[in-house]
Structures are given as C-alpha cells and as structure tokens.
Fold these 3 entries.
Entry 1:
Amino acid sequence: MNDFTVTVRQHPQRTVISVTGELDLHTLPALEEATYVIPLGGKALHLELSGVSFMDSSGLNHLLWLRRRLLAEGGRLLVTNLQGQPASLLHLTETYELLTSPSVSEPDGRHPEGGVPGIPRHKQPCER
C-alpha cells in the first residue's frame, strides 16, 4: 500500500507543497489537483520532495509542465530536497539543474547570466 500525501502551505511570497510517497501515474492526480486549484500567478512554488521515494516519467512531465506554467505567469518553480531515485531521474534526464536551481530565469527562458538554465554550457544553443 502506497501512502501518498500532498500538503499545501500558503505564504505571502510563495506556496510550499510537500509530497510524500511514490509519485507515479496512479498518485499524480492528487498533486495535479493541488497545483491546478492554487492560484500561483507571480508567486514562487516550492515543491518539497524529501518524502518522495520514487518518481516515474508522469511525475517528471508534470514538474516540467508546472515550471512552464509558472514562468508564463511570472512565477517560478523550485523543487527541493530530492532523494534517491527521484534525484537520479532528474540527473539522468538532465533536468535536475532546471528544476532545482533557485535562480530566476528571464521571460524568454534564458538564465540572467546567459544560456538556458538546466542545459550544460557545452550543450547551450548558439546565438546567430
């Protein structure tokens, strides 16, 4: 039996969602519901995932969708306290820096210091 919980805490400048359990296709609807109903426009969303022991591609896809949504609304996503397999998944897919970096991106998706966050410098797109 998988005990999956999603806890939401609202703060003036950010929302914190803490997740515990296995984040997969069967448990994802609970996280989706929390992120759909919370008004996030312009605020930071911190996803605290220290209690997540497993994440599949549906969980990763939702994190990437959520990041795009927040950037479009002037907010930002910060995934924190990844452990074990979920951290390995983000490293394997080269999304770890993209989702865990506390820096704020420019509206066009570029990192303020240049380049696209989450993409290693040697793989950055060239300006023409």
Entry 2:
Amino acid sequence: MGNEIEKRGVQFIKKRRDKIFAGQTFVLYGFDEEGIPALTAYIKEGGGVVLQTSDRRIPDFAIVPMDGFPVDRTVNNIVTNTWMLPGGLLFNPYYGSII
C-alpha cells in the first residue's frame, strides 16, 4: 500500500512540473479590471497561483503592463505580461488572446 501512495505522489509532482507556472505565485499590478480575469486564467491554466495584492506572502512574480507600473511591495521578480509567453509574444489581456 505504501508503494502505491508513493507512486501517486510522484505522478502528482510530475504533472505539476509539466505546467509552465507550476508552483509559482503571482500578483498583478496595473491592469484594467477587464484584463485581470484573462491573465488570472492563463496563469492558473499554467499551474500558477494568483495572490491578492493584500496577501502577506511574498510572490515569486509581480506582473506589470509593458509600460510599467509601480510595485509597492516585496516580490522576488518583476516582469511584464510579455515575459509570460514563450517566444515573447504579447498577451492581450483585454481579449484573452495573443496578438
């Protein structure tokens, strides 16, 4: 029985690692209310977790628009929404698509 539980644990870890944002936490700054749901869905689909700006944990990444936005808290990395996609394709948060 212990061996079966160990196998399931390994499978769970492997699945989490298959996703691009697995185990990473994010906070969003400077986006319109219309763009936040699309960005949040993209991050969650990639295995990431979006924190509220009021959350006390230190996020791995703060995501800001291309033209920047002040980040008023401690974060490990500040990146733009362009960084989020392979190949540097721009994510359009208003339409939930790549432009």
Entry 3:
Amino acid sequence: MGKTISTADADGIPHGERGRPVARIVPADGSDSTASAARAALLSRLEHQPVANVGPWTRAGLYDDER
C-alpha cells in the first residue's frame, strides 16, 4: 500500500532522474523501536559530548557576516 513518486512530483524540480520513480510513500510500520533506539542513541551521545563555550551572543549577531 505505497505510492511511488518521481523527483518532479516530490518537489517540482527534476534532479536529472528524468521522471523515474525515486521514492515510495508508505505508512509507518507502527513500531516505536526505531524511534526509541534513535532517541536513546542521541541522548547518550549528548551526555558524553563536552559542552561548547561559545561566549555571549545575540540573535541579531547570528546574522552578521563578519568573515
């Protein structure tokens, strides 16, 4: 019970696939095991990752281009 779509149908811009099917839209399998495992892996990585001290910042400063 899936629907095959082409790149043109996916986002309106062909990506050199010439309309060939590149994806299938299918219902989720209903199993939360993949999501639970992914969440556990993410939280484990974040717990062991050192905190990055980036100093003070402002939202406007994020858009400044000072390269």
